[in-house]
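It would be a great kindness if you could assist me with a short task in structural biology. A protein sequence and the structure tokens that stand for its backbone fold form the material at issue. I should value your view on which stretches of the chain appear to form regular backbone elements. The record follows directly beneath this note.
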Amino acid sequence: MLNPFKYKVSMKYKDNQFPRGTVTSAELSRDINRLTKDRPQDVSQRQNRQRGSFPDVLPPALRLFVEETNIALGIPEDYLSAAILFAASAAIGNTVLLKIKEGSVHRANIFLILIGNPNINKSGALDLALQPIQKQDEKAFEVFQAEMASFDEAEGGQKLVLKKYLLSDTTPEALAATHMENLRGVAIYRDEVSGWFKSFNQYNKGAEQEMWLQIWSGKPIDVTRKTSAPIYIRRPFVSVAGTIQPSVIEEITKDNRASNGFFDRLLFAWPDNLEKPLWQDKEMPTGLLNQYADGINRLLTLTFDKEGKPTYMRPEREAKARLFHFFNEQNKPLCDNADNELLQGLHGKFDLHTLRLALLLQALWYAFEDSPINKLQSSTVERAIELAEYFRAQSLKVFDRLHNASPVEKLPADHRRVYEALPGEFLTGDGVKIAQKMGMSERSFKRFLTTAVFERFARGKWGKRYE
């Protein structure tokens, strides 16, 4: 069957030409090269991209979308690629489940955190990836408002329901109530995910964090309060994504989250050596934006059957064999030989991470390449394993920062540069001059001196605690 969203384009470029129809990825690329005069002819203008970045696992149309977005908008490719996975998760919800065998059924919900310094477009990646779903919510709200204007409960009108996909800041009760109106599932996007962590246990110490552990695992949501009707959701689906800066990354493991399994449930994207992107006079091809929206909208059109049951995706024989080999021959030894229990927990969750990533990738290849939605293909499993190893490396990077890094390594990048430029011992005035040459104000430097990486010898005389 022809995929109605496969490379169907209607792009309006500077010369007002409109290529139409179903084309291959190569033809699409040639159209963009021909019609967008200012498109770079090589990858030299792609920003913030380095060896070892996000693996080549997305469908061709999405890879082109990610590359063009990097050029036109300066969004790092790792961030947008990971954000697309989150958008796919939010769009699919409970409508498609991966069934490995009886008793082994898996959903595609993920907890994703994009890590990086300020002003490098972390939020821009999630904003762009979620645009089609945000527009769906906006349309639903417009319909809801129109219906409310003519609603008369006294005349026996049916209770109106606003079905939402995306939430930002919510309490456990509000989350459960929203999810009850949309059993397909919901997604939470917190621009600063540290606020999510800080909200845990705000009203009931210990309970909310435990609730999130259970939600990730697909355990039922049971909310009973004296002031409202009870809510019970047998098969919850909640994905979460947000951003955080390295300087506050320790928030992730506070309140026992390093040892209670919470950290192990997170996926991270933390590319190396990112800088604030350059503004470039490049336009994002409208056709690629429309094509991306079409693909995500195709996932949004997935539904339950007449009996309210999801589509079950089942692995091909070779796909299942490859998964079991990965679990038993690659991931199990990492767990068994881990240096400590924390690393054992980290590696252990990558069986489940890999299955969820496989489901998401198969769904994206369905949306953009017309691959089957009810079958997990061997090629997808290979991509999922490669992607899982990418996320494992990111988790280990975060783990190393949290547990092995020195106080100097944990400093924000600008503070670390100033620290490394200072001599072992220095006078306050000399330190101020060095800091100012590197863009740090006198006031900020003097505040920096009060931190634990410096030692005060006498009035106006300081020394570095670490070399």
Notes: The chain has three domains: 25-42+51-125+262-400, 135-253, 413-464. The longest helix spans residues 378-403. The mean pLDDT is 86.
